[in-house]
Predict the structure.
Amino acid sequence: MNKAVAGFSKFTKEEKINWIAQEYFSNPKEAITSIQQYWNSNEKLQQLHDEFIENTITNFYLPLGIAPNFLINGTNFTIPMAIEESSVVAAASKSAKFWATRGGFKATVINTEKNGHVHFIYKGDVKKLEKFFAEIKEKFFLATASITKNMQQRGGGILNIELQNKTKALANYFQLQATFETKDSMGANFINSCLEQFAKTLVEEANSYDGFTKDEKSIQVIMSILSNYVPNCIVRAEVSCKVDELAEKNIRNPREFAEKFVQAVRIAEIEPYRAVTHNKGIMNGVDAVVIASGNDFRAVEAGIHAYASRNGSYSSLTHATIEGDIFSFWIEIPLALGTVGGLTSLHPLAKFCLEMLEKPSAPELMQIVAVAGLAQNFAALRSLTTTGIQDGHMKMHLNNILNQFQTTEEERKIISVHFEKNPISHAAVVNFIENSRK
């Protein structure tokens, strides 16, 4: 069957759905029902969702969970988390409760600088280019004055512009590297608008520059784009307490636990195979809050993982020490977030989540997100170094298996009682269900 289609974007929503149902499903009516059951009954709200992206046919829901009791810098927060993975919200909540009685989380924004580049090719005398840039640098600021006016009124704007020589890595390759402060906005559109104007100014000024030969005037701009790698937009979150204060139900020897915990972090610092999974657990917390707040989790992921590799090898984002009788655990990550603009203002649930967080500024949201990542990592490492990760995870995952097999309330009670005393695995649960039904 030929499934190629012409003019799909011009189809109405119903025409798109009908085409998909007819082309890909043996039961088109059932497929259409599956799509339509996730439409919002509020037509205006559904239209809003339809217009977020192109070729929309329905909504794809993620559960929105709540992790309460996060004590951050002396203030209690209830953190929203949008995620499908079982045990993440429970683990975050458990960490929050644990540290609330041990001084809570401390968080600090170290810097909020973002950056972008005009990437261009210049085939001339480097000294001439450097002289040219020094002479016209101020014109970049003047050319973008209309773009930066409102941002400057909020305390942001262009911080600096530098010429970068990258010819050792790629022949004739140079950059204009610009740094920005975008306050409570993530700033992607603002930064890209500035960069595209820089590119126009660069080409125009080069064409009329007397110090260049005819060939040197022909600067070729390849692209102008912000970077999602923001190593100077850093937030730190940390917890600490006396080693003896780590004691609880599953930690009867707190000194042994602390030493084992620090070694687990050290392994993630030096072993990339472990570091990837270690950091994935951190991102369970980070991404869940980023998504709930209407921010771009893909940009955050890319920037954070690049930061984890900044020293030449992929490594842990968290660190831990024992100094005397004090246990310390912390994270430093780059986060470019916004609390105004984009989906933060458009998506009703993003607005709801930000209001639940008491309408934070962008730096405050950075602190909350970093704390969520640290809490998630603490929960994972505590499980790994004590009972093992599967004990808690599979208990939470049990519901997913039961839903998959459409178990009745009576079956759920019998299954739950059985697995209170028996190891949980997917195969064990399936076998028990099948044998019970026989």
Summary: The mean pLDDT is 94. The chain has 16 helices and ten strands.
